[in-house]
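Title: Comparing notes on inverse folding

I've been comparing how different people in this forum approach sequence design from structure. To keep things fair, I'm posting one structure and asking everyone to reply with a full sequence. Here's the target:
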């Protein structure tokens, strides 16, 4: 009996310690959070942050619960924006540029996730074919521009010529200089035609880019994101920086200015970018009222076929 009592004491202490730890985590906001429905309306509240960074420096890391609530609220506003774009017949083009692993793809996912895919398209073109190389440079992008009521998100765009093509030597100096001269006029023409054009540059530090590259290499589900071209660009950080500065100097025009997103912290970048998009396109809330579903009519003249006559997916989970 004495032995059993002695063995029980550490177990009770351990359980008590775990309960106290969970309470402490809950009070500090460090415990895992489930997504909750956000009931807040109006202006964005000051976000709570905690100082955490891989290299030990202070970073504005938005807490998960705060991020999820604010993202949910902003995504509802994006849906309202899409209703307005369709109602007014607006044409919206949003360009996402930046260094490799800067977070462009994740940003596009957060924007497109709540939207109707029939009215919001993602354009992520591969390298041009031999046939496309003989076309006017902007031609293959023009065919993806939006019609009335559409939003088009470009995951990289015609600015490939000012960045990767120029740095890696995939275009001639003549083609590069022609682009720098033609691009501002091309974009002015788009804006004059009524297209709403927003351009975002995702800025990431070399330390954070390196960390994300290493993460992609170690994670089999993300390994497809890193390519030999990414590794080559990693060794040409300064060349890309110079190319970006020159690109901004030529194409940061009043009709279509560049907006830079600090993206070392992905959560904060997501919220800031969506908030900015909503602020740049005036819209009104014309969300349809909820509909009432009528009662189902009884299936009096239908008999379901036997289950053994159908093929079902095995219940593995």
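Reply #1:
Here's my take.
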């Amino acid at each position: 009996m004495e032995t059993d009592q002695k063995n029980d004491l550490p177990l009770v202490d351990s359980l008590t310690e775990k309960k106290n730890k969970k309470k402490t985590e809950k009070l500090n906001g460090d415990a895992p959070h489930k997504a909750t429905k956000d009931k807040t309306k109006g202006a964005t509240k000051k976000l709570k942050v905690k100082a955490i960074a891989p290299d030990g420096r202070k970073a504005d890391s938005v807490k998960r619960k705060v991020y999820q609530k604010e993202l949910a609220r902003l995504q509802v506003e994006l849906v309202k924006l899409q209703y307005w774009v369709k109602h007014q017949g607006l044409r919206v083009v949003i360009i996402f540029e930046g260094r490799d692993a800067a977070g462009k793809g994740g940003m596009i996912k957060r924007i497109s996730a709540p939207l109707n895919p029939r009215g919001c398209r993602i354009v992520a073109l591969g390298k041009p074919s031999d046939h496309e190389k003989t076309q006017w440079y902007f031609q293959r992008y023009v065919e993806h521009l939006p019609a009335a009521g559409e939003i088009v998100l470009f995951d990289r765009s015609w600015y490939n010529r000012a960045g990767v093509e120029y740095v890696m030597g995939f275009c001639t100096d003549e083609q590069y200089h022609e682009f720098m001269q033609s691009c501002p006029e091309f974009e002015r023409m788009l804006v004059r035609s009524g297209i709403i054009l927003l351009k975002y540059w995702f800025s990431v530090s070399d330390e954070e880019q390196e960390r994300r590259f290493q993460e992609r290499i170690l994670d089999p589900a993300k390994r497809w994101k890193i390519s030999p071209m990414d590794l080559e660009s990693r060794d040409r950080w300064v060349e890309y920086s110079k190319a970006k500065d020159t690109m901004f100097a030529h194409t940061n025009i009043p009709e279509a200015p560049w907006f830079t997103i600090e993206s070392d912290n992905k959560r904060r970048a997501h919220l800031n970018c969506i908030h900015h998009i909503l602020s740049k396109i005036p819209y009104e809330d014309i969300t349809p009222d909820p509909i009432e579903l009528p009662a189902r009519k009884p299936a009096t003249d239908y008999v379901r076929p036997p289950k053994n006559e159908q093929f079902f997916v095995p219940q593995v989970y």
